[in-house]
Write a structure and sequence with these properties.
Helix content: 40-55%
Shape: globular
Radius of gyration: 21 Å
Distance between the termini: 24 Å
Strand order of the largest sheet: 3-4-5
Number of helices: 10
Order of helices and strands: HHHHHEEHEHHEEHH
Number of strands: 5
Largest sheet: 3 strands, antiparallel
């Protein structure tokens, strides 16, 4: 695990946003009800900023479901693909995303598209609308749905300055991720090992705690709980996606119905796979302490809305 501060993790545009919001929020009380509400507000803003790519894609999926001109001469799926590329380029041009995150999106697009080709051929789900930009029965925009998960995880890691205690060996997590990916294919032919994978995941990460900076304070959470919360959020987003008929499951052919809760387990495993892939770009960093005091993560620190401080006493902002 990386032990010390790395390169500056924010773009020049993000630094400007940080400075502007820093000037506003530093005037607010640090304690009491208002201090707690400020911390909660900043957490929400940071989460929204981390979801820029995925949020934009989900908004387009909804918008095109509610209104799409039939005579435009461009398939809805093709528009979504071209829009995803445009969003990606815009984030880079306007310096709201790092090159490393763009690489994560590319990796996830490839990994996700391969899975999509297999799963649609197996009848797990279908894309009911026509398009030109596709591989077999899979429109190319679908890979960006996986990329949105990778983009969020990569961005939230640096935006919340995530540090870890009790993190398992990187090699073990890579083996777990590989086994999860293989099981998504192999369970169609042999026994489904997802419950074994759940158990291995619990064994590896049971003692892992993620420590994340919001505004003035660093908070902590069991990493397994964090995995579950993100998977639940993705499950909600999938319900929106299937309602918009961007893709549908066999049970939804005759009308929309909520996605089965069983899919939450699949998203939980896929999210762990995504998290491990992101650690290849943003290596897990240990929690910095003040003079060796493990309790330093609870100390108030001057940090802006997008500030990552290399030390817990907030020497950078």
């Amino acid at each position: 695990m990386v032990q010390v501060s790395e390169e500056r993790r924010f773009t020049s545009r993000e630094a400007l946003i940080d400075a502007a919001v820093h000037r506003l929020l530093d005037r607010l009380p640090a304690t009491g009800l208002l201090g707690g509400l400020t911390e909660f507000l900043v957490f929400g803003i940071k989460q929204a900023f981390a979801c820029l790519f995925g949020g934009a894609m989900l908004a387009l999926i909804l918008a095109t479901r509610l209104w799409w001109p039939e005579d435009i001469g461009l398939a809805r799926y093709d528009f979504l693909f071209l829009s995803a590329v445009a969003i990606q380029l815009s984030l880079l041009v306007f310096k709201l995303e790092t090159i490393a995150e763009a690489k994560v999106i590319l990796i996830f697009h490839v990994v996700g598209t391969i899975m999509e080709v297999f799963k649609t051929a197996a009848g797990s789900w279908v894309y009911p609308e026509p398009s030109l930009l596709r591989i077999g029965d899979v429109p190319l925009f679908s890979g960006f749905m996986y990329a949105a998960v990778g983009s969020y995880l990569a961005r939230v890691t640096r935006i919340l300055d995530m540090r870890y205690t009790g993190y398992p060996p990187l090699a073990a997590t890579l083996l777990l991720a590989f086994a999860i990916y293989v099981n998504f294919f192999s369970h169609h032919f042999i026994i489904d090992l997802r419950y074994v994978l759940f158990a291995v995941t619990a064994f590896l990460f049971l003692k892992t705690t993620v420590h994340y900076r919001v505004f003035r304070f660093r908070h902590r959470m069991p990493l397994l709980l964090g995995f579950l919360l993100v998977a639940l959020f993705i499950w909600f987003a999938e319900n929106i996606g299937t309602w918009s008929r961007a893709w549908i499951y066999p049970s939804q052919h005759n009308g929309w119905s909520p996605v089965s809760l069983q899919k939450l387990g699949a998203w939980y495993l896929l999210m762990i796979l995504s998290f491990v892939l992101v650690t290849l770009v943003h290596r897990p960093r240990s929690l910095p302490t003040k003079a060796g005091d493990p309790s330093a993560d609870a100390a108030p620190t001057p940090g802006g809305i997008l500030t990552t401080a290399p030390e817990v006493d907030g020497s950078a902002a």
